[in-house]
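Write out the bound-state structure for FE2/S2 (inorganic) cluster.
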Amino acid sequence: MKFTTSYGDTGFSSFLKTAFQRHLGFDERDLQKPIVGICNTFSEVNRCHSHIQPMVNAIKNGVIAAEGTPLEFPTISIGEMFTSPTTMLYRNLVAMDTEEMIRAQPIDGVVLIGGCDKMAPAQLMGAASANKPAILFTGGPMANGEYDGKTLGACSDCRYFWQEYKAETIDEAELNEINAQLAPTAGHCMVMGSASTIASCAEALGMMLPGSAAAPATVNERLRLAKKTGEQAVQLVKDDIKPSDIMTKESFENAIKLLMAIGGSTNAVIHLIAIAKRLNITIGLDDFDKLSQSTPFIANLRPAGKYQMQEFYHAGGVPAVLHELLPLLHSNERTVNGLSIQENVKNINVKDSYRDVIYTLDNPLYHKGGIRVLKGNLSPDGSLIKPKAVIDKSLLNHRGKAVVFSSIEDMENRIHSDDLDVNKDSVLVLQNAGPVGAPGMPEAGMIPIPQKLLKEGVRDMVRLSDCRMSGTAFGTVILHVAPEAAIGGPISLIQDGDEISLDVKNGRLTLHVTDDELTIRKNNLTPFADETNLRGYTKMYRDHVLQANEGCDFDFLLPVKNN
Ligand code: FES
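---
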């Protein structure tokens, strides 16, 4: 019998297993059917997954309808707003949990239920390594919020209105009223932030059923998609189609093109690299940059555009974008429903009434994609910017003097000080907030505009760091600078007053300090990270995490020949 615990006697193991399965109400016939694990990530401390139980039930119904046997099991579930210091610190832990439970448990295939930012990437990483038949489903985005007749979006408007509060254009009472409407329904954030982006990319990768990324958590179609997902999981087991059959180099390129066309989150760059590496597929920042230069931006979605997931869903969602992108895609790539991308989307049409949500290749919003890779002596291994999320476009080509913060704590302590020597042309620099330095690379990259400048009307400045920013954030923000400060990257050598130039058009980020001076500074550098009290998971994280351009996975989780 497959999947038995080892007691040194296979017959006894099988005898024992049958006795315990009978306790669950299963008989021999149930156990001969395809057994589909349902990775239930319900958690009250992961708000974005608090509503998924009816979807789990629908998935179960689908498995049973397709003559499989469902077995629900839990894994770690992490939510953005409730995890300290940052969920990214724990993405790899979720991936390990998911991989090992898929591998160890008596299941032939698995349905993974993601939603909040780090869950789907972690699950895809784990499923890729376990490589049993797998299909992803998400809890879906929230419906739109509304305040004073205007649409609200989590969490672009969380950031926008907090900034206005700091600028003293709204008071605390109004801020509180807005707060009550920012997360109005079940679901994950409803702009094209990290959660919506990674779900959309997973659909383009072929790991989710067509249409299941954008359907809001609140529409009944989501339950029907859940049931179909359960049915399809059984089929994947019967056909023995594994993640490695679906996630190929070409399907990753499709997902990157989709990412560029929707102006998605920079976090997806890290996650896609990490998932691909689990399958021994090499994609790097140069691939993202090349595909960004050749993929038009066609989805008008916040924070880079105007609409939210609700409108995106009504306009046709990911299948509609893929339909527009077909001439650019590897359209024969197969997906979890057994059909190719081309077969899935060829008959999708965007209605004229939604043409302001999804544009065409011939008439795009912008001719290039949503993310630009920057290189130069300040980020030799690359850094990222979202040019379309920049507020003050004049900053896309800018030279200014650095105002340096040596850590997140230092930034919090000084950013709003009246005596901070800063003006609107300064470049705000945050060091030691990367994968090793923070650790966990928190989403602190949208460095707050100093309050004294906010009050003068400044709403955007060039900001630069080795950490990440939320996919819902905006501004002239340079992220993921690699190598990071804590391992001695050039960002660690920046001092107050140094000149830094940003040239987005040419993909350049330059620190205007001579090589000789940089060598002197490097020789005098004191390592930032204090290792004295590090233990347990955090120590393991610091010792083994890879840099942002390599996906921030642990070195020992790569396939053996890459290890
Ligand atoms: Fe979960 Fe935004 S807080 S997706």
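---
The mean pLDDT is 95.
The first strand starts at residue 35 and ends at 40.
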